[in-house]
Amino acid sequence: MDLYPLLLLGHLVGFVILGGGLLAVFVSEVRAYRTADVHRFAEAAWYTATFYDALVLPGAVLVAASGVSLVFVLGLGFFEEPWLVGMWGLFLFEFIEGNTVTRIQFRRTLRRSRRALERGRLSDRDRSEARTPLGQAAHFLDLPLFLVMVYCGALRPDTWGHVLIAIGVSLAAAAVLAFAVPKLAGNPEDSGYDRAQTGRG
């Protein structure tokens, strides 16, 4: 039985699940930035933790298992091709970072949101202490580096220059996101979405 089609399918499905989970986490975090309502903040924190555990982590495990198997089935060397080193190197970095810095970050936010929910109000201190600068930087780096992994696997650049340029662009994009998203969110009290939801209630 030829395992290649099954492994390739598993690899693609893993990337879809992983990418969908990262995008869902990103959206839920932006939602948390844009609200001053304690219930919506707690809800966003819960969604972030849920999406990470239910989508990002299983997707990453499937990508890793199928990817390593594909390398052996195809007889590739882990260090022979720049695109392959880029893929597994970035994946390994993201997997370690996601299960250390990012996990600590969203678990801290979840705990702070639950305490705020028990008090019935969300303070600026709750919002600021729920996130560390390192955690925010890691959060905004996830999607850009994921896209570099997709680029390496889909286009298979055969020079280190192309891989390094892609990584450089992703770092610049992450820096822009880390600066722009909190700024674009503005003052949570001025959130039109919150006003609309409050009006509906």
In a few lines, what is going on in this structure?
The protein is 84% helix and 0% strand.
Based on the model shown, name its key terms.
single chain, 201 residues, 84% helix, elongated, disordered C terminus
SSE inventory with pairings:
Layout: H1 4-33, H2 38-73, H3 82-119, H4 124-129, H5 133-155, H6 160-185, H7 192-200
Radius of gyration: 19 Å
Largest sheet: none
Domain module tally: 1
Low confidence ranges:
190-201
Number of strands: 0
Q: How large is the share of residues in beta strands?
A: under 5%
Instruction: Indicate the mean pLDDT.
Output: 86
Structural class, from secondary structure content?
A: mainly alpha
- The arrangement of helices and strands along the chain is HHHHHHH
Gap from first CA to last CA: 59 Å
Shape: elongated
Helix content: over 70%
Distinct helical segment count: 7
